[in-house]
Amino acid sequence: MSTGEHTKEDTVVDLPMTDKICIKDLSVRNIIGVDAWERSKRQPIIINLVVYTSVSQAGDTDHLPYSIHYGTLCKTVEAHSEKSEFRSVEALADSIARVVISKCHAPKITVRIDKPRALLHAASAGVEITRSRSDYTEGELTGIVPCPVRFNQHDIIFVKDLKLSCIIGVNPWEREEEQLVVLNLQIYPGLDDTPDRKADYVSSTHNYRTIVRTITKYIEASSYKTVEAFVTSVARIAIEKCHVSKITVKMEKPSAIVFAGSAGVEITRDRAFFASAAAANKTHTRGVSSISTIPGFGNTLGSAPPKRGPVPAHLSHEVYLALGSNLGDSAANLTNALKMLEQGDRVRVVDTSFLYETPPMYVTEQPSFLNAACKIRTDLEPLELLKKIKDIEAEMGRDFNTIRNGPRPIDIDILLYDSIEYKDDVLTIPHIAMQEREFVLRPLCDIAKDVEHPKLYRHISQLLSQLLLKQEEASPGSDSNIHKSFPLRRKIVHWDAKTLIMGILNTTPDSFSDGGDYSTAEAAALRAQQLIDDGADIIDIGGMSTRPHSEEISEEEEIRRVIPVIQLLRARGFEAPISVDTFRAIVADKAIEAGADLINDVSAGKRDPAMYSVMAKWNVPVCLMHMRGDSKTMMSQTDYGAKNDVVGEIGRDLSKSIQRAIAAGVHRWNIIPDPGVGFAKDSEQSLQVLRRLPELTQSESSPLVGYPCLVGPSRKAFIGHLTQQPDATKRAWGTAAACTASVAGGAGIVRVHDVKEIRDVIKVADAIWRV
After folding, report:
1. Residue 675, pLDDT above cutoff 90
2. 722 in helix, strand or coil?
3. Is 117 among the catalytic positions?
4. What mean pLDDT comes out for the span 17-22?
5. Around Cβ 295, how many Cβ atoms within 10 Å?
6. What span, in angstroms and rounded, lies between the C-alpha atoms of 750 and 716?
7. Which of 121, 423, 603, 698 suits a disulfide with 583, CB 3.0-4.6 Å?
8. Which stretches does DSSP call E strand in 602-653?
9. Is 339 in the active site?
10. pLDDT for the residue numbered 516
11. Which NCBIfam families does the entry mention (predicted)?
């Protein structure tokens, strides 16, 4: 190929750009993001280019200057790609497009970048973009101004030949052993009009690493009979969990047909496709009574806060904060800080972590900290949010002139803000030290374990795992002394250290085993003290029997039975925590006002729609129990489907109750789920709950994992059936066995009548299973 004295600028002719100049599989080496092992190293990159132009004049004259010299094109792209470092394939592709348009005078170009070492289990991942000169300003083409990564309707992100193992197929042998399947994904980002998008930044919505991790986690834990269900699930996960707008999923099953390479299905789905199905399958709460059906309710609960509505649309930024306190009432400090964050209409707290009591770091001669994390939605910009946080810290008494990392009543840090990176003299996002702090990562993992750190390319759960591994290597066998906790009567309870005993105190005439024994306030107060002396940690006072087929009483009668007992106990200086056993919001509200410390709701908020608001109002621990129907109907509702999967249903149903409670403003660290042994469950189903309790409390796939589960098997009918003991007061030995199974299954609290007898059972069970 020769060069002439004419240049392309001298011969511009208005010709249609129907021709293409192609460069196929140009291999370069570049540091671009991280490799499959998440290391920042030089990697092979495969580039394919299609330049849209007209070669008519060059074809007519056989004179190269009338076209684009593909040798020059190749060298330009190769030199540009290898001299610079990029954090994303999107940024590299966009940069190549700008260079070719500006230096090689291409009117339009398609750039495809394949990164063969992008993922461990895929052949490659990458991006394909199409750009025209009109897509850029002159400043962006010349490099005078930064050019943000933007997507348009022609772009795709792809993952090629992702290999996964899973159970798939209808034949019996296919249900026994995992098979290899091959996935090809094409993600369509669509038009991206996000203002102020930073250069070389790609959100998690378009991050193939995040998308593949999420899909892999769900698929390899699942079991499918058809490839159609498989590909639909992949598309649904990508759209609903990863928030992509549109995706094509092609799945091949190499072992499907003996004389064929593979068989499979390809589908394309978008958000609109799943929207109608989601609306049709929306779950409606069953058995919820209206406030207006409760006599006198409107006049007796006027102090309850209004029901929280959905998060306002203008709160568009998603932010994760870390909170800590080690001066004064730490739990109250954290709660007050969250309330102050929500003052005004600029911030909504949408989720909170569990609480952790942690030893001090950096400056060790100070009290232990209480740490948590929260997720907020806000329309405040980072520096505006920082100012609000500093104002809250100052108002709560933090002294900024004391020793750095020293004692403080409140400390709030911005960990993540959307997926941005930000740095100036006063603020760095993501938080610069979060990956080295277990007291930050543990609570953050409760609410954001699958969120990816925008600089470190790892999920929060991975950062925690890596930190724990480093700590173990540095000090083998050492204990971090971090305890999951919840606040109870101005004390911090380490529920992961011992199983708590909740002593039952019924002030009813008709309870199934002790009805009428403690129906006066004096008798109930004496019994409460006896339960504490016997070893109870909490006293649970109930004024209405919820045994099967019992009659419900009025709220006035329930209040008459319960409130005087609580008032008498507190008047006598009784300092042990008191729980109120009720599903009525007005009873719970008056009980907490009288001195109770915990709400134990057998309906998990279903019977009274105002209950969640009362729980949020008082910020006390709450037990949410699984049941169906009411005391008269629950034993007719023991059908859990063909598989009788009562444990699976408990997990799903309590998860919905927990999410409703959190949405109402209840903090996660205050929530205690209860599988409801004996409630809407026959004897075999109650045994199944105890037998499979670890699936609820310890399995990573369980929605209840991490919560301090309460189990109440005391004197229940299933024990009487097994022991042939009709007298409920003589079922202590059977209760002891059930409590032992509860501890072995991961229960944090057991609710019993016979505290003195069960106390030693729990001590021994803890010594065996709580290690």
Report:
1. yes
2. helix
3. no
4. 83
5. 11
6. 13
7. 603
8. 622-625
9. no
10. 61
11. DHPS, folB_dom, folK
CA 152 → CA 110, 156, 201, 599, distances in Å? 12, 9, 16, 53
- DSSP 3-state of 693: helix
Residue 34 confidence (pLDDT): 63
Predicted confidence (pLDDT) at residue 296 exceeds the cutoff of 50 = no
Residue 209 has a CB neighbour count (10 Å cut-off) of 21
Using 50, 70 and 90 to split pLDDT, how confident is the model at 5? Answer: very low
Mean pLDDT of 472-486: 85
Q: Are 161 and 121 within 8 A, CB to CB?
A: no
Paired sense of beta strands 246-253 and 355-358, if any: unpaired
Catalytic residue chosen out of the listed positions 375, 527, 716, 731: 716
Q: What is the pTM of this model?
A: 0.75
- The encoded tokens of residue 185 equal 């994904």
DSSP string, 108-159: EEEEEEEETTS-TTEEEEEEEEEEEGGGS-HHHHHTSS-------TT-EEEE
pLDDT in tens, 490-539: 899 998 889 999 999 999 875 555 556 787 899 999 999 999 999 999 99
Q: Residue 245 to residues 162, 190, 240, 276, 329: CA-CA distances in angstroms? A: 21, 7, 9, 15, 46
Token match 């109002």: residue?
617
Write out the E strands in 299-395: 317-325, 347-352, 355-358, 369-378
Q: Which two structure tokens, joined as six digits, stand for 301?
A: 């609960």
Spell 668-707 as b/e; 16+ CB within 10 A means b.
bbbbbbbbbbbbbbbeebbbbbbebbebbbeeeebbbbbb
Strand partners, 264: 252
pLDDT tens-place string over residues 399-443: 887 778 889 999 999 999 998 889 999 999 999 999 999 999 999
90 DSSP assignment:
H
